[in-house]
Amino acid sequence: MYRFLQLARRFSALAVSLAALLAIWPLSSEPIVWEWMGRPPEVYPEIGFAIFGLPASIVAVGSAACIAWTAAPSATGLWLLTAMRAVNGLALAICLLVLSAALMAFLNRA
How many domains does the chain have? Predict the structure, then answer.
């Protein structure tokens, strides 16, 4: 049981980051949100998702991979693990902000 909890702790950030990347990818490549908004002229929300959401989700996946790769950090590597967790948290916060914009467009669709 303890071994399972260690694996879950190591790979949970990677799973959440991959889920964020998979959720943001179609929003940045297809005009889904634009259609939910009622197709207003001269509005391109997928550009915003591509500029803010995709880089944040890629950074989140990269930092989560570093977290998962660092199994048992030494005393000198603990600061790096802490920094990667902070970067992952900030990137996932940006992803959640972008996904909440898509959710608002979905809930207010015409």
Answer: 1
